[in-house]
Amino acid sequence: PTQLFFSLFLFLSLRNFFTEMAMAQNTTIPVNVGVVLDMDKWVGRMGLRCIYMALSDFYDSHAHYNTRLVLHTRDSNNTVVGAAAAAIDLLKDVEMQAIIGPRTSMQANFLINLGENAQVPIISFSATSPSLSSLRSAYFVRACLNDSSQVKAISSLIQAFGWKAVVPIYVDNEFGEGIIPYLTDALQEIDARVPYRSVIHHSADDEEIAAELYKLMTMQTRVFIVHMPPTLGCKLFSKAKEVGMMREGYVWIITDAITNFLSTMDHSVIDSMQGVLGIKPHVPRRKRLEEFLIRW
């Protein structure tokens, strides 16, 4: 998955920086790095495992290096409050050189302010909302593509098929809303209208999702762009198939927020998504990547 690649990349970059610092001082330097992730989510566990793998590989082949990265892990419990509490705990109890994480854009928004005040870099490999860049913090490092990088590909797809009206369907939080201004601008450039924006609550149940889908069925627009977490996306498409919106005549486009996780979804969900078009970053399959995937 793309997030696995970025987690490994950011760790290697961070490691190289502190290694050069230690070599200049010619002494062993412990480098305390906090890791704040949702440990009950497979993405969080995967990211942590990648970091440990990179750490082990590096010191196996560079035993003479003076730095020793010491990881201090904390569970954000999949909440903004949990991520903030974990970061505060790290900053108060341990002298952190940096904090890797958190997983979501909503969590990152709060941690960026903490990092700014403590002058500790916050490095995230999965907080993708473009709105985080507007905070203009010198202590926030985004080690992944932000969601605005997808809008040109989406608009090119829509232009190629000649669709003139599009309805975005997105989750009602910072992650979902962050891409919308960029998407709207990209669609305007190709003269595609956005007659309606469908906003789904992050904890919407099946009945609420169905109600919104029935509303969309009464409109003329039949082209939809879906940007939401995969868990909510699974519910949306299962319900869309149930109400008859996955048949011929409807067009569904998903961002990489869902596309990156298709391989983890149940077969029943994949079956409900037949015909959906997905946008996803391309990571060249080079030798080192292949070797890493074999070990994984």
TrEMBL record:
Localisation: Membrane
Keyword line: Membrane, Receptor, Signal, Transmembrane, Transmembrane helix
Major localization class: membrane
Signal peptide: 1-24
InterPro entries: ANF_lig-bd_rcpt (IPR001828), GABAb_receptor_plant_PBP1 (IPR044440), Ionotropic_Glu_rcpt (IPR015683), Peripla_BP_I (IPR028082)
Assigned GO CC terms: membrane
Start and end residues of each Receptor ligand binding region domain: 50-293
PANTHER family referenced in this protein's UniProt entry, alphabetically: OS06G0188250 PROTEIN (PTHR34836), OS09G0428600 PROTEIN (PTHR34836:SF1)
Protein name: Putative glutamate receptor 2.8-like
UniProt source species: Davidia involucrata
